[in-house]
Amino acid sequence: MTTNKSKISQLLNNNKFVFVIAFISSIIIWLAVAINVSPETTRTINKVKVTIDNTVPSQFGLEVFGDSEFYVDVQVKGKKYQISPANLSADDIVVLAQTNNVDSAGNRTLLLKAESATGSNNYSISSISQRSIDVYFDVPKTIDMVVEPEVVTDGFEVVEDGFVTGPVNLSETSVTLTGPATEINKIEKAVARIELDSSLSSNKSADAKIILLDENHNSDFKFVKTNINSVVLTIPVLRVKEVDTTVLFKNAPDEYVLNPLTYTVSPSKDYFNISVDEYEKTTEFSVGTIDFKSVSPSNYVFEFLRADLPVSDESQTEKFVVRLDVSNLSQEYFVIAGSKVKVNNPDNLNFKVSGLNKSVMVVGSEKALESITEDDITVEIDISEIGISAGQTTTVPANVTIKSANCWIYGTYTVEVSL
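RE: above sequence
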């Protein structure tokens, strides 16, 4: 039987075996030498993110505005295998921007310091691509500002001869500004600006850029942001036309909707600025609206001021006088007891309602009034939000209506409610 000793002896006498053993041994020795006695080398790690420590600035209410992300290249020195890409990446290095002295608003130059993220001493930092960064600190501020329209021309009129402009409209009338307080405090106004290349003869709508301006009309705000960048600006274009003057009515009984009260307007014609889109078909212009609640046999003359209307500069009129024909109207008075007042009381308050502050005046033709009774009149109040405490009394508006196709309630009314 072959012994273990003789087997080993046979292997040692085998040249192939001996060669394999020698090869493996040489690799192990080479690795040991490479690891332990290999010379140091350098390597540049690109795009290492800079961390800005905001601990101290935040104590003074300061934040970073503008560029807040910075990257640098870091050169490290160490044994080749220890600083290889497999063992060392950008995430293993921290580059800190030092902010210990940042205690007020303004531009600051922050020194950079690079070190191992884990505290490893297997390598050293040789250099970084830049030693500092410039950062702007300030106190954040947010405000809302009214947007003003601004139409810019190259010296020519906004509209052609024979046309005028109406009030310019904006799709948004305010803008929210967010940014450093130092800059926002310098902003005097926000404008929505469009530039025209020629005079207008038709309505114009276009996107207008939001521009922030200081007191010198400059717009140099680096860090302020707006919630909207533009709005739709509309320029109404109008033409002067002489047309008949009319009046509108509201709250009219059914019979007077179909057969309105006759009236006269003085002047019966005048010059108005009419939209170019409506110009050809416009033959009359309403100078105002009359509420039937204000019409009675003794109250039938109404005035409407020029200032409230798009009257042309060609007109000499300062006010329009409307006279209603009330020759066929009469009036009747009714006393409504507090017990007949209907109350909206969702909270089931313990209340007491007085009668109306005055008798109800009903207006209509004498014949129509003959059939009117108290039962045709309804009085309603809402005390769901009157906001009074027990023992207090307050005055509440009363909605007085009448069940009639040819009569109406004149005036306004109130009741007193006590808790």
